[in-house]
Structure formats: C-alpha cells, structure tokens
Amino acid sequence: MPNTGTDHIVTSYNEELLSLAQAIAEMGGQVEVAIENGTRALLKLDRELADLTIIADQRIDDMQREIDDMAVSMIARRQPMASDLRAIITAIHVASDLERIGDMAKQLARRSLKLEGLNLQPTFYNGVKNMTALVMRQVKDALDAYGNREEAASIEVCNRDDEVDAMYTSLFRELLTYMLEDPRNITACTHLLFCAKSLERVGDHATNIAERAYYLATGKQLTSDVQELQRQQIKA
Amino acid sequence: MDVLAGKVKVTSKTLDQTMNPAELMDHPIRLTARDVTVHYGEKQALHGISIDIPDRAVTSFIGPSGCGKSTFLRCINRMNDTIEGAKVGGKIELDGEDIYSPDLDVVELRARVGMVFQKPNPFPKSIYDNVAYGPRIHGLAKSKADLDEIVVSSLRKAGLFEEVKDRLSEPGTGLSGGQQQRLCIARAIAVGPEVILMDEPCSALDPIATAIIEELIDELRENYTIVIVTHSMQQAARVSQKTAFFHLGNLIEHGDTEDIFTNPVNKQTQDYIMGRIG
Lengths: 236, 278
Known about the structure:
The complex is a heterodimer. In chain A, 86% of the residues lie in helices and 0% in strands. Chain B is of the alpha/beta class.
C-alpha cells in the first residue's frame, strides 16, 4: 500500500491522499503493461496486440486528467502543507511523465504495424529487447521509489540512466552496422532506431519520476552534486 | 510490492463523497428560503436572499464581516426574533413548513434546528446536566435510564464521551475550549435536531481542536443537515459540499464548494476568494 505517512485528524483528507497515491500506482501499472505490450507487438509483429495497445492509451490519457483534477481540487480545498503539498504537486508531474511514457508505448505499437513485410532478422531485435527490459526496470523502480518515498532508491534510478543512454548509443551503432551491411535492411532498422529512441525517452521520463520521488522524500531537489556524492559513496 | 501490477483499485467512493457533490442529487432539499429580508430598525441587513439547503450535507456561508451571513443563519431558527427592532420578511420553509407561520411553536423549532455558537457556552452545570437539560425540558425521556442513554449517545456522537465518561458530574466549564464546543454540539444533538446551525464554531479554537471539530462535522453530516457560517474560507473549502458567498447583505453566488473555490462564476466571488480587492 502506498505510504502516505501519519494519519490526519480529518479522515476524509487521509482517504483523498490515499486515493491520489493509488491513482498514480494504477496509472503506473497501466503504463508498464502498455510498454510491455507495445514491445511485444513490435517483436512478434502482433497486429491485434498493437491495436489494443493503441486503444488502451486513451485510458492512460484520461487517468492523467483525472489525477490533475484530483490534485487541483485538493490544493483548493485542503491547503496542503509540507509533505502533503509535495505529494500532491509531484503527483501532477508524475502523471504527466507517465502519460508521455504511455505515448511512447503507443508509438512502439504503431511502428510494429509499419514493420510488416519488411526484411527483419531476429538479431535486429536483441538490442531492443535488452533495452526494453532495462527501461521497464527503471520505470518500476522509479514508481516504487515514489510510492515508498525512498531517497536512496530514487538516486539509484537516476544514476542508472547512464546505462540506458549507453545502451541506446550501442544499439544505434549496431543498427547502423546492419544498414551498412545490406541496404535492404535500411527501412526496418530505421524503424527500430526510432523505437530505440522512444525507449531512451521512456528512460528519461523514469528518471524524472525518480527525481520527483527524491523531492517528495526529502523536500530537496536532486542535483547533480548529490548524485555524484552518492556515486562516490557507493564506490568507496 | 505489487501495487504496480494494476491490482490496486482507485477508491472513487471517498472522492465522490468529498469532491463530487453530484452525489448530492440524492439529497433532497431540506430548507428553502425565498426573498428573505432583514431590517434592524431602518437599516436593511439582508436584501432578498433565496437559497436551497440540501439534506445531510454541509452548506457553508462565507463573506466579509458584516455581509449578513450570521444574520441569515439566525433567521433559520428565528433567533432574530429575540433582537429588538429586528424585522424578517420573505419565506423560509423547513420540510415544506413555513417556519414564520404564527401557528409554529418556536421552542420546538429551536429543538429541530439546533445552534452552536462561536464562543463555547456550556451551562454552569455538570457535563451530564448540560446534555440532559434539553431532553428534560422537552420531555424526551420517560425515565432516568432513558435520559442516561440520550446523554451517553449524544456525547458519543459529539466525539466527547471517551474523554469525559469518568467525570460526567464535573462542571462543563472545566473542559478545554475544544471539549466545551463538542459539549455544546452534544447538547444540540440531545434534543434530536434535523438541522444543526454553526456560527463560526472554531474561531475560538486552536488548529488541532478545529481539526477535531471538522472531523466531527464530516461524521455528523451523514445524519444531519448542517449549515456553517465561517469567516475562514479555507474552512469552508475543507468542510462543506455547498458554499454560499454573501456580500453587503446580498447572496452573490451559491454552488458546489469545489466549483466556488476552483472556478467561481461571479467576479466578486473570485476577488474575495483570491484575496483581491474588487
């Protein structure tokens, strides 16, 4: 259960904060499913799954609007302070990042429809598979850090963004190689390049969520100084 | 932790109850006021107020000092009758019955429409007798056991019983400010009201005591129609489902609390809630 801290005297306030946290958790769940489905539609060229993923994005967009409305209403009516204020404000940001991740998943699904009939080798997919696994882990860990208000876990996600970027660069080079080997690979590999870019953007949004998690837990913005300090502490 | 697997359901019930007064469509109108005016001698304090108050919900009256919100509140249980030179015009109906009808028993009205004031005003009696006084006068208890039950039940409903159960014979004035106010609420509840009027019930209380009263109001609204006058619009935003904004004796705007505080229609309302000078 998402941790919203000590109970308020007014129980309805408590319940509203819990509902907001649960809404973020639910939206996060839907978005994770969307990435998984979008990628699977891409890897298996599953038209039906692709269509379902595209349609399901509407619900994700609706959830972002609902969370925004909830947050605005609570700010107007409850005059939240301290960690309650941070929870409500960061919920708006996190919902926005999740909505963008949902859009990326939809893009993956759309691309899968374009890949049909193209010259595709299974090896082309390996990089995308690995990158998907990594960014999905980033999204899950960021949301866990947010839901549990964990400082250390949020820094870990931010630090791991370097791995995502490195993987993207490596995948970029790999796909270029295939394109250079055989011009018939160009169309398919270009589409996969765009997919890789989408996944890299998902990683960035996961990092954003982790930064919000840090802010929620500590009341401070996560700066590069803090991240660097943590890296050194881990090395030592 | 599996919350991310979409297994957690969003509980919209609570959200609906606190944020979505569309559910008030199930709540019938309890009180109606039409073109209510009040004069204190030559001075007109209220200019034609018309408003519907829904059952089992909290309606708050907000507005700057002297806007007429307390004057209008006092019309609802005819407390203005006790003010010399006060003249009330227009019509107020409780469950379709004109409360200014000459046949109406005003004492009975004030039992049906209870009132809690800004400064807690327990009687100079024991805690028990404070709550028992009303039921005794109105003949609501057939026996001592009945009376005991009414006292205990009222103190429980007012969220005070656990704190005072071992000292019911001690004076009510010995309690803290917040406890005294809850005692006054228990006193109002004891005579079985349908409507509870509250005139700035928390102005004299600290934030914790205020939060306890606000939690109590949240519970009470399941069984009573509540109207609260408050000079704190933040309190109105927290506690009520409907809000009415008064200014210079006029009702400027009335609607769902969420709408009033996020998107008011009237510019005067907007200026007031934003703290801008109109």
